[in-house]
Known about the structure:
3 domains; 47% helix; 15% strand; single chain; 8 helices
Amino acid sequence: MELKKSLFKKRFSILQVDTRDHAFSLLDQGECFLVFLELALPEQGGALLMEEIYQAYPDIPIVLVTTEESLDAAIRAIRCNVLDYIIKPADQAMLLLLVERAYSRYAYRREKEKIIQILETSIESLKHLYGVSPQVYHKREETEMTDSTIVDLERGVLIKDGAETALTQVERSLLFHFIENPGRVFSVDEVWHHLYKEPPGEGHDPRHLVRTNVSRLRKKLKLVNNDKDWVINVRGEGYTFEP
């Protein structure tokens, strides 16, 4: 309770969720900079959810919270690059410090992205001002899908009529792979290998995580394409991309 009061005083928002789907729906919005995760969860183990969050959002730090030490959970936490592994009861001052440290990283990353965008805009203005050939500069990875829809893979956004929809790192990688191979059917195992470059760990069902990532990408693509489905399920085989 004291931690919540301290965080509210510093104008941090705290969102508590009870289900995996609710957690991912909030993470999809792109405004979360830190996750406190209980190791003991009713629906599925916290360690498994930690790995799913890390694979989908590697830039969002995780603090794992538990009532007792577990060597297996500690090893899995290290692999997921967790910010900290805390045994209850936790020191409130230390928790507040973790939040402030995570926010500093988040603010730095957002500021860097803003500066890069400003620099890119300035370079474009200079090119027009001095008539410099655009071939001199690095070409952004943009793909025009329709007259009003553009995929900017370098920045990780879908653009429709000037409005932008952000993609996660996993969604960006998946969409790039689809765009490079239109019409090809990818099995679940092929999609998994492309995204994670290693076999599924013990206790992982690759179909579940691949299905989750494909579903989230499909929803975002529909938002910018008048509800048309570019990612097609091929029964018994996998997925294909048909823009």
